[in-house]
Amino acid sequence: MEKKSTRSLLSKMLFRSFKKAWAQFLAVIAIGAIAVTLFVGLLANAQSFENRVNEVYSEGNLASLWVTTTRYEKEDQEKISSFLEEGEEMEGRLYIPCKANTKSIYLAVVPSLPQISKPYGEIELSSTSTDVDFVYFDKELKSKNNNISGNSLFSLNQDVPFYLSLASYGLNEYASFLDSYLKEGKTNIFKEEALCFHASVTGFMNFPENITKSSYNTSLVLMSDSMFRKGLKAIIEENFDEEGTKIIFSALEGFLGFNSLESETLSNPNQYLISVKEPGRVAILKDKIDQYFANKEDNNLYLAASRSEMPFYVTINNDVTQARQFTFVFPFVFFAVAILVVLTTLSQRVLQERSQIGTLKAIGLRKSQIYWHYIRLTCLLVGIGAFLGEVLGPIIVPWILGQKYSILYSLPDLRYSFPILEGILTAVVFLGISSLVTLLICHKEVSLKPVDSMRPEPPKMKLRHIRRSKKEKVSMLSLKMAFRNIRLNKMKSLMVIIGVMGCTALLSCGFGIEDTVDYGIEHDFSIFYDTDLSITFKNTMSKEDMVSALLKYPEVKEAEPYISLNTTAYLQEGPQSECKMYLMQKDGDTIHLDFDHDKIVITQKIARNTGAKAGDVLRFQCNGLSYEAEVAYIQDAFAYHGIYCYTDASFLKNASSLSYNTAYVKVKDKVDIEQLAKRMRSQDDSISNVMTAKERNAMIQEVMTGIKVMTNAVKVFAILLAVVVLYNLALMNFKERTRDIATLKVLGFSRKEISLSLLFETMSLTAIGVLFGLALGYPFMLGVLGTNVVELVEYLYCIKALSYFLSFVLTFVVAFAVNLLLTKRIRKVLMVESLKSVE
Fold it and tell me: Could you read off the pLDDT of 319-371 as tens digits, one per residue?
């Protein structure tokens, strides 16, 4: 009966506490919910993202090892196959960098649909597609309205020109020999820079190696050997007589390792895909393969790469890792502030219920029962907040951050993941720390004798002799009272400063992320893209012909042809980096770089990926040809990463004669650029694509949409944090000052003067917290962006003065608004009841 009555008494006290301090308790629940929402939500986002990536790799049966050779040799295929154990598989394919229209692609020619690195999900097929006749493009390359659009989108049954570089195989050196076999009026296609053959699109697929969307990565196209043979045979027979056709295909056997026309397949593989069950076997196989080729007299190994070394895998795997790391960076601030809010709120409750604690001890309650009462109160508040966070986090956060992944990657639809075990552990740790804090808070009061607890806590006073001037204004009293309270309540003041500091740091971090993105785009446009239009032609042409074709438009002021190539850069020893190589005009006025004629400039991202620095000799390959040049310097860049060199550099002397299909265009003053671009697209059949500077900016902004979504989330959560923290602390301050407010009212002070006292105190502490928060904004931004890298860009960190000012103003406005709202309670303070002592 006694135990029942004790429980009933404590339960009633708990209910009264909720009724009396519901606003403060609601703040505790809110901050707890925000902290758990962020942590569990980010954890759920990382798990969901990783699960979606693994689903792509699993359904597409992604290869474990890629072995690429410079030419086909039958003994290579047999030897590699002999290294495999039971259950391990190998497939071969002809892997060729080429262009479809003007879109750079990797063409994979296969005898039949592959089973390793295979299309997954539903393939959208045309009526002409069969198991042996197919050309599958990635679904991201499909025209949205099923019409041919520009140079990079395709539609079903579209006849697409494929361009194979001849320079890399040395075939154009022997082209003159074939002149005597030409049909009348036809062209010797082997004298061109690239061999063009045609094939129709028979389907659109999802492919595991195309997991990074084709807008930001070179896409792989699957073509059957049958379609490849038909395309080559058609273009050769169209231009050469029967005898010439036989000679050409005989030469292809020698130069490219092709089979004869009578064989079942024309192409032979130069790339082998290996699938293993045990991850540990990958390194063993790679070592055996490297050793085999190293011991060959004529080593024809180009690259043996495991999954973790493939560029498409590295890019998305970095994002998966960063998603996990981000879980432990951002929510830390909210958890720290949540614990501080619990600390301050419970401290006030214990002080306010000091006499009740003394009464409970006087009537015989044990210390453990009183401890348990306050721990139960804490657990209830924190538990409700944690529960709300557990439910809302895995729904809200993955939906917000998932927008970034949907822009960059081809992934299955978002499936929400609820990390139940991690969520429970989070709640347990949060409850445990909060309970420990509560125990420490209660210890001082519970340890006192009942008679001491039942008396009010004596004020901390120091005897001071102050000479007062007769002319001293009463209005100065508000300021003096404010500073007195700051001095007497050091712990509470510290809580206000830390809470405001966290809010301001988050706000300046959020604004700083936006500044970093905007500055990066402005920086790149001023150095790498100082132009109005970027024009892509359907066919290549000489520099002079391209300039003439563009200057026929009266609106065009100047035209600057340039060449953009896919390349692989590396030092003699070190990692490789796939990037762009830009060949620019020496007298050009679009790309503002100045360096020695026979050197190159690389951007800092390429330098980081390859380990190159100024003065190093960098090697790179374009269209099968190898080059090397000294690095003049490292250039900062946000999105325009690559290698920059001049078209007449001496190290390019072994390249075939240069031809162009792209140009930068500057227009005359007062010309409507949008209208000119529209007219070029619609009226000029030779032009494949026109992009304005505004459209280029929008494309980069689209890549950064995910970052900006995250930035807005940071700012929203920062403001929520500021509102909750400042409201809770201001309310607590108001309740602690009730007797002071009543005294001032009795002495005749106006509501304005009393309000100023409260405002001076809080706003002074806010100012200190803001200053510390502004100082922490930059390092916090580095931490957030460092765990949220976008592989396509390299951040040029920057926080503008305006962003610091906005962070300062926002925090002050929130603090002022919250405190102004609470000062309205002054008129509700009852003077007689507030001034009563404990009887």
Answer: 788 788 778 776 777 787 778 777 777 777 777 777 788 778 888 888 888 88
What distance in Å separates the CA atoms of residue 101 and residue 201, rounded to the nearest whole number?
12
Q: What is the DSSP string of 642-677?
A: SEEEETT-GGGTTSPPP-EEEEEEEE-TT--HHHHH
Contacts of 535 (CB under 8 A, 6+ apart): 550, 559, 662, 663, 664, 665, 680, 687, 689, 690
d(CA 370, CA 446): 8
Tokens representing residue 133 in the block: 């006749």
Q: Count of CB atoms within 10 A of residue 564's CB?
A: 16
Q: How far apart are CA 221 and CA 95, in angstroms?
A: 10
655: how many CB neighbours lie within 10 A of its CB?
16
**Residue pLDDT, tens place only, 549-573:** 899 899 999 999 988 887 888 887 7
Residue 293 vs residues 58, 75, 182, 491, 621: alpha-carbon distances, Å: 30, 11, 41, 70, 21
**Bigger pLDDT: 816 vs 487:** 816
User: Tokens 């970027």 sit at which residue?
Assistant: 534
* Sign of the alpha-carbon torsion through 390, 391, 392, 397: positive
Two tokens, residue 405: 């992944």
Can you tell me whether residue 264 is helix, strand or coil? coil
* Residue 471 confidence class, pLDDT cut points 50, 70, 90: very low
Of the candidates 721, 724, 35, the one whose C-alpha atom is nearest the C-alpha of residue 431 is: 35
Q: Which of 580, 585, 645 is nearest to 609 (CA)?
A: 580
Nearest Cα residue to 481 out of 831, 814, 755, 812: 755
* Distance (Å, whole) CA 439 – CA 457: 20
Q: Are 641 and 606 in contact (CB under 8 A)?
A: yes
Return d(Cα 468, Cα 283) in angstroms, integer. 85
3 state SS of 702: helix
Instruction: Please compute, for residue 105, the number of CA atoms within 13 A of its CA located in the half-sphere on the CB side.
Output: 29
